[in-house]
Design goal:
Blueprint lengths: L1 H14 L5 H18 L14 H12 L6 H17 L2 H17 L3 H17 L3 H17 L3 H18 L2 H15 L5 H17 L3 H17 L3 H17 L3 H18 L2 H18 L2 H18 L2 H17 L3 H17 L3 H17 L3 H17 L3 H13 L7
Helix pairs in contact: 1-2, 1-3, 2-4, 4-5, 4-6, 5-6, 6-7, 6-8, 7-8, 8-9, 8-10, 9-10, 10-11, 10-12, 11-12, 12-13, 12-14, 13-14, 14-15, 14-16, 15-16, 16-17, 16-18, 17-18, 18-19, 19-20
Length: 409
């Protein structure tokens, strides 16, 4: 790319001119143009994987810090970190958010610090580090409150609610989402409103309330389409597909997944694309199309492993384990599901723990290991109870009654 060559040339020139602020400002502008051009869906992500680019960029960020006004630099870092996040290079993105926070703090830019904390916290959440995620989001909330940044405070409420969903505290999560919506009455922001209704829909889906979930998700989709939020629209289309799946409407679920997958691919959002492929894999498994199911689940797992997405690895392991079981590969099924359950418990993720325990319990039942099956189903029953998913609880109790299993501890 011409801009990459031009940027490289100016960067080397800047090494000899560290006090030339005009040259450094030119580099910031060029770097930002390069980033915008490179993050186009039509540009191969290999541009940002060039071996010479990351070390050079890191050195340039150090040079940029000599500028008197650091706001253009923090804005550039924000763009760059978001792009790395979307490509699934989470460790790289976190490093850029760290630098963004440092420069924003030095420049007295409290919104810049808050943005860096919020987005770094979201990466920690996706990596399964809920403690680190919560620390970032709570600090962001405190800073937003102290500086009377109403919209950023609403963002932090929404982000804390998402973490509480992961922890299984759905009532408290719902309270944070409601608080975010209340704050938005004083400082409306349609983008955030779309986020909140999307997350409320996910919460209700986890509770086993697909009809209520669809209502909130459809509202989120309308908002996101109205404001041109293409990434958000793709995410919500995927979530509506999952609500349709939970309601047993497999054909509609497949239609929504296809729409979401097309959007995510066009946008270059590899993490979301992996999530949708995994959902499609589970749908094909339920339809009995095991080779197709394994293809989708395997593709998702490869992306999760390359990005270090621990929660994705757990869920992919669960679905692949179920596919192996359907094809009578019982030992491989048990191995996959046991590993997924252990990892879910390690990360203290209630929904994944419940799903993995239920799946492993069913496999153990069918292979005659009633003691281990009872242990797993009891864990699933209790965890679904914490999540207030009455449909899942009812399903496990019916299974236990049919198989004469006593789940009372």
């Amino acid at each position: 790319m011409d801009k990459l060559q031009e940027f490289t040339h100016l960067a080397y020139e800047a090494r000899e001119s560290r006090d030339n602020h005009i040259l450094l400002r030119d580099i910031v502008v060029l770097a930002e143009l390069l980033l915008i051009e490179s993050s186009s869906p039509n540009t191969p992500e290999a541009v940002f994987k060039k071996e010479e680019f990351f070390p050079l960029l890191s050195e340039m960020i150090e040079l940029f810090s000599h500028l008197n006004d650091l706001r253009p630099v923090t804005r550039f870092l924000h763009r760059l970190a978001r792009w790395m996040d979307r490509l699934g290079y989470w460790d790289v993105a976190v490093r850029y958010y760290d630098k963004m926070e440092e420069l924003a703090e030095r420049n007295g830019d409290s919104p810049g610090v808050i943005h860096a904390l919020e987005e770094r916290g979201d990466i920690h959440r996706k990596q399964g580090n809920l403690q680190g995620a919560e620390a970032c989001q709570k600090r962001a909330y405190d800073l937003a409150r102290d500086h009377d940044e109403v919209v950023l405070k609403s963002h932090a409420c929404n982000n804390i609610g998402v973490i509480l969903i992961e922890r299984g505290d759905l009532n408290m999560a719902e309270g944070y989402f409601d608080k975010a919506l209340e704050e938005l009455e004083y400082a409306p922001e349609r983008l955030l409103e779309g986020h909140v209704y999307n997350n409320l829909g996910v919460l209700k889906c986890i509770r086993g309330e697909p009809v209520d979930a669809y209502r909130d998700l459809n509202r989120a989709l309308n908002i996101r389409r109205e404001i041109g939020d293409r990434n958000g629209s793709a995410e919500t289309l995927h979530n509506i597909g999952m609500a349709m799946f939970e309601a047993g409407n497999f054909d509609e679920a497949g239609d929504y997944y296809e729409q979401a997958l097309s959007h995510a691919h066009d946008l270059g959002n590899s993490n979301l694309e992996a999530n949708i492929r995994l959902s499609r894999g589970e749908l094909e498994y339920r339809r009995g199309n095991n080779p197709t199911a394994m293809k989708y689940a395997g593709e998702a797992l490869s992306r999760y492993e390359s990005s270090g997405d621990q929660l994705g690895i757990i869920d992919a392991g669960r679905i692949i384990g179920l596919i192996h079981h359907a094809e009578n590969r019982f030992e491989e099924s048990r191995r996959r599901l046991t590993a997924a359950l252990e990892l879910a418990e390690k990360h203290r993720h209630p929904l994944l723990t419940a799903q993995c325990a239920e799946s492993l319990g069913m496999v153990e039942l069918e292979t005659g290991n009633s003691e281990r099956a009872t242990e797993c189903l009891r864990l699933a029953l209790n965890t679904y109870g914490v999540l207030e998913n009455s449909e899942a609880v009812r399903g496990i109790k019916l299974l236990a009654a049919r198989r004469h299993i006593h789940l009372n501890s």
